[in-house]
Amino acid sequence: SARHLLAGQDAGYALQFLSGLFAESPVPSVITDKHGVLLHMNQAMERLFHLSHRQAESSAGFYSVLRDKRICADPELSAAVRRVYLEGKIQTLEMNYSLGNIHRSRFICDKNLYFRASFLPIRDRSGDTERVLIQLQDLSREKSARDALQESEASYKAFITNSSEAIWCYDMQPPVAIHLEQEAQAKKIAQSARLVEANKVLLTMLGASSLDDILGMGLVESGSTNYVFDLDFFVKNNYEMIDHDIVRQDHRGKNYYFQICCTGIVEDGLLKRVWGTTKDITARKRYEDKLRYQSFHDSLTALPNREKLYADMEECFAQRSADQISALLLIDLDRFKEINDTLGHNVGDHLLQLIGPRLANEMSEVPGTVARLGGDEFAVFLPRIRSTHQAVVFGHRLLDALAQEFDLDGFTTQISASIGISISPQQAQDHHALMRYADIAMYYAKGQMLGLSIYSPEFDPHSTKRLAIVSELGRAIRENQLCLYYQPKVILDERRCYGFEALIRWIHPELGFVPPADFIPIAELTSLIHQLTAWVLEKAIEQCRRWQDQGMSLSIAVNLSARNLMDDNITKLVERLLNKYQLPASRLELEITESSIMTDPNRALRNLDALHELGVHLAIDDFGTGYSSLAYLKRLPVQTLKIDNSFVRNMLEDLQDELIVNSTIHLAHNLGLTVVAEGVENEALLARLSEMGCDEAQGYFIGRPMAVVNADEWIVESGWIKQPPQ
Fold first, then answer.
1. 58 Cβ partners below 8 Å, 6+ apart?
2. Which of 112, 297, 481, 516 has the fewest CB neighbours in a 10 Å radius?
3. pTM to 2 decimals?
4. Is the pLDDT of residue 680 over 50?
5. In this structure, are residues 132 and 86 in contact, taking their beta carbons and an 8 Å threshold?
């Protein structure tokens, strides 16, 4: 000890030794008198406060620590010094001081120091306290760590308390060995787990009144297996679950959904504890289910939509057996547009809503999917049928069901439909091909007015036969295998023929007569349509010029396709041919369909305006079968509206057809248009159309399409040709 080291030394040496020991001590220390006046300060204290002894003596005494060179400036320090003098015992005191005001330039920011101050008496020879040694132990790090821990615990408790998720912890009592089989581990966990921590959200989930009621309980006992664990998955997934969804039912059978995140603490081959959270995601799941339903169902009819149909078909194809036969029936309503145009879209929508249940009623014996694809198009997918014949029989059942009357808010109507059927795997191996083939069959059934048709490659514009026709058509144009037939058009009140419609015909040297329906749609899919139209225009204008030269004031009508209307050179072509044959533009009438205009209305209108300025007459062909609206009809620079023969042919027997024809005539006249009725096949029709005020007509009763030689004979013999009134 120092006492032994100093034994035998003189007082001067001892004082020097102790002074050096005090000065070099790593413990910040000062010596004061009983009044707190600073007598000595060691280097550690100087470093702590960044002051020299001289600076300290000349300053305010460490500012906050030693004010006026007196520790007693602080009441607690002053009291501690007094107790040392009075009691002669060591005193301790914990304190903190801000260094923010001490040599501020030396610090980036304010800093608090935490100390334990020890006050030791220095006695004189008589044993009385003469001086006080004050030593400071820096507790700043310990205090910061303790405060951080307390803050962390407070934050954790706040998180637990305020979390919207159930937070829980289970101790395994006893721990569960992880070397056991998975089933055995799950059983052991269920038996050993005891709830040791939880928040009020879990309390609510479990239906308990207080945490004391459930803490210490096991999984099964507390009912927590319903909300915190999927034990088999937990064990199988290496003792953790990340965003694992589970579904539970209440006593009424209503589903509730929860998402679990948890992890197990494994030490020395033992599962000891499991921490986790449980989130009630029922609202989110129900919202997702709602979105999923909306994405897979038609909003108007509540039937599955195209996406759901495709999904069901894909699932069927992925799982079907080798001998399984499937069928797709594509259903398109006939003349549905009439209902929309005549009775309004609200009535049309009501009809569509009634069709879904009627189709679904036929599915009781044949499982499958009924879907609305859009507009007036529906589909029925039959994943498992016995034969193609069964699909055909079922298709006729659907047609019969749709043919029954519909009550549309007091208005009774009947509709018909066209159905196309495709079969898998005989015809198609995937849902895309199945849909395409059914679509082709449906359009064939509609065009031929068959009601129902099964797909055949002959209907397919991309079949081998059709592709052969494409290659032959170009040669036919070059080698003059084509010819024009002419069908007369008459003015009813004058009983006078005023012109002909030019209709193309193809006489193939090997195939013989090729129907226009077999090659015109194909030509419209290729650039051949432009060559074909140019050929027809030139031959028709040339023939009309001949009739003009023979003294007959006849006009000629030519059909334009959608691709012709999209061709910005069509006006130049027409103008060039009119100039070439010196035919007045008013003698040429170009017929366009509603659907061809709707392909690109703005572009079509631009080209139609140009043709109109040229002086060419324009007519809407097959009115009522396309997709135009009155808004577009009003904008079109047309002079004539032709009523499709599907309305005219049976109007004497079908009151609705007569109503449509009559309404169309009045509509056209109100718009300042001339009306032509197609499909006039008898005298009675002609007479009724005259009574209705129809302007013009054409049809088999007046004259069939005929070669130019026969047309010349018809002009002479028919009696329809008269000079127009002067």
1. none
2. 112
3. 0.44
4. yes
5. no
